[in-house]
Amino acid sequence: MPVSHSIDAAASAPKVTFAPETPSMDNELPLRGHRKRASDSNNILAAANSPMKRSISTPVVSSPAMISSEQVADFEKQRQSLVMMTTYIASAIQEKRRGDPIKFEELIAQLTVTKPSPLSPTKMLQWIQALSQCISLLDKSCVDLIEAMLQIDWLIQEDVFVQYYMSFLGNVVSAHAFYVVPVQSMLVQKLTHRYKPMVTGDTPVISREIQHERVHQALKYILGLIPTGATSLFPLLAHEFPHKRESIYAHTVYVKNILRVLEYAPVLRTQILGLVIDRIIQVDVEIQVELEELEDSDTEVAYDFDTADDDDERDISDDSDSDSDDDSDSGSDSDGVQVAVLDIKKMTKKLDGMLFLVFSYLEGYVNSCRHLPTPNGRMPAPVEELFLVLLQIFMGTILQTFKSRHTQFILFYIVSLSPQFSDYFLGALGTKILDKSQPEVIRVSAAAYMSSFVSRAKYLDIRQVLMVIDMLGNFVLELVAKVDTGSNVLPDADRYAVFYAVVQALMYIFCFRWRVLEVGAENKIRSSKDDFDSAGMIVGSMDSPDVNSSHRGTGRQWHSGLNSLQRVVTSRLNPLKMCSSNVVKQFARISQSLDFMYIYPILEQNKKIYIPRHAARPDSDLLGAGGSNRNGAGANGNGNPTVGGQLPHELETFFPFDPYRLRRSAPFMQGIYQEWESEEDDEDDEDEDEYDEDDAGEEEYEEEEDDELQGIGRHSGSMNSEDEEDEDDDEEAEMNKSIMAMSISPSPAHFLVQGMTGHK
Question: Where is the composition biased (Gly residues) (predicted)?
Answer without folding.
Answer: 624-637
